[in-house]
Amino acid sequence: MTPAPGPSFRFHRLLPGILLGLGLAATGTVSLVLAAEPPPSQRSVLDGVFSSAQISRGKKGYESLCARCHGDALGGGEDSPALVEADFLNNWYGKTIGALVEYTREEMPSDGPGDLTRKESTDITAFVLSSNDFPTGSAELAPELKVLNQILITPRK
User: Fold this and answer.
1) Is residue 112 assigned to a domain?
2) Is 31 part of a structural domain of the chain?
3) CATH number at residue 54
């Protein structure tokens, strides 16, 4: 006579499926850990993250869109903050270039915000950074937010 299927019988029939499920879960977890990118190394504006060609384009954009409020020398205006020296660092120290580019892209110019492309905003940001005596590099500052968010605004040494 065959014993009636009891709890131990059901467990033995389910055991291979449980082990397979646990194995797949463990394998999936390991795969996810191995596939994850290591955190990028933090860069700063002191690393020469924009090019001279970018500064030239940014200067043209600044002169046509920003200077009327922030001034030709970026010293600020009646209702607009200075974009150089202590005033600039007081507003942007410890934030990323990505935050500055996105703020510029979404909020500026104040009389018609939201019309700048990220590339235009990145070029204008390069001009502003160069006006704060941050070093020029050989490569252009990429207008990808993932890249821009990895570069900190820090004081000059």
Assistant:
1) yes
2) no
3) 1.10.760.10
CA distance 31 to 25: 10
- 155 membership: H or E segment, kind and range: none
Mean of per-residue pLDDT scores for the chain: 83
pLDDT digits (tens, 9 = 90+) for 19-55: 444 444 444 544 333 344 444 568 999 999 999 999 9
Q: Is 91 inside any structural domain?
A: yes
Report yes or no: 70 and 80 within 8 Å, Cβ to Cβ.
yes
Q: Would you list the DSSP string of 2-56?
A: PPP--HHHHHHHHHHHHHHHHHHHHHHHHHHHHHSPPPPPPEEGGG--S-HHHHH
Q: Which domain does 106 fall in, by range?
A: 43-152
The token pair that represents 40 in the structure block: 């990028």
Alpha carbon 115 to chain centroid, angstroms = 20
With respect to residue 34, please indicate whether it lies within any of the assigned structural domains. Answer: no
The structural domain count of the chain equals 1
Eight-class DSSP state of 87:
H
Whole-prediction pTM value? 0.74
Per residue in 81-130, pLDDT (tens digit) is: 999 999 999 999 999 999 999 999 999 999 999 999 999 999 999 999 99
